[in-house]
Amino acid sequence: xxxxxxxxxxxxxxxxxxxxxxxxxxxxxxxxxxxxxxxxxxxxxxxxxxxxxxxxxxxxxxxxxxxxxxxxxxxxxxxxxxxxxxxxxxxxxxxxxxxxxxxxxxxxxxxxxxxxxxxxxxxxxxxxxxxxxxxxxxxxxxxxxxxxxxxxxxxxxxxxxxxxxxxxxxxxxxxxxxxxxxxxxxxxxxxxxxxxxxxxxxxxxxxxxxxxxxxxxxxxxxxxxxxxxxxxxxxxxxxxxxxxxxxxxxxxxxxxxxxxxxxxxxxxxxxxxxxxxxxxxxxxxxxxxxxxxxxxxxxxxxxxxxxxxxxxxxxxxxxxxxxxxxxxxxxxxxxxxxxxxxxxxxxxxxxxxxxxxxxxxxxxxxxxxxxxxxxxxxxxxxxx
Length: 384
What we know:
The chain has 384 residues and is α/β, with parallel strands linked by helices. It has 12 helices and 14 strands.
């Protein structure tokens, strides 16, 4: 089988070129062609010697993912469904804003964590994605958007690993993908603008701090172990005290001076004022009352789906909850819902893949969908 060059970060590609008898600078040239220019044909790589191009043709390819559907939201958000084989599919979402373009990427087909408020978790787990399948979502989206927006400069400025799956349960494939995103010869993204979201896989958080520290978002959702055990089953293995200590330690290497805590607002479950005060005490318990600024909270309106048995908090309740945190000196934002009309909002990435028994048939039908020109980015929320 031909090697897929999207699987390699620059070091991996250099090792591959070395096996072909080629020098490292050839790997750098090849890396730039693939990621900066979006080339998939070796014939297009005109500054590579013909003998090298011939070696590449017989040994490798640049193999992206088949796009089986595209959905556009009224707010400018775009969701793509990618076929990853064997009846499985994953989704990625582009969120345009005035000052940034954010791509939300999947790391697994399905998810094994099973958070109660996440429709992806209710889909079940199929498999981990490979590095090439993770990178392919960015590779496709970046160069598709450049062509259709008629732009020569970078469109995607931020990447969030907040799509389908728990990224840190696919650590071996994740880290080379992150390195490709950060590499100046590829996408050149700042570590501050690449975010890994996790439900709290503590050992892998510790490894990420050593191997490839990027911005970190932690799905918290509760101020006590009893409640978090119910909402985020992973808490039974890595309880709050262990998680919070790991978050504080992560800051020694993190590109930001804070951890973002994601908090899905569930009516009558975790949205009471008393629970907001409990969160303040939880945070202060790890840094002292005079220094609560090691984290920020991102309050997320819940996007209901029938299997959850949950409803979203009223806007007034969310505002009251945010006020308690803000009054305690904790930076708090309320996430603006984007793309909910195409099931692309937070916690909704299962829309076209939630019934895997029918996904192959849908894929066959959706191959006829034509991709239309993209309209200019809509103005939107400043926080992701």
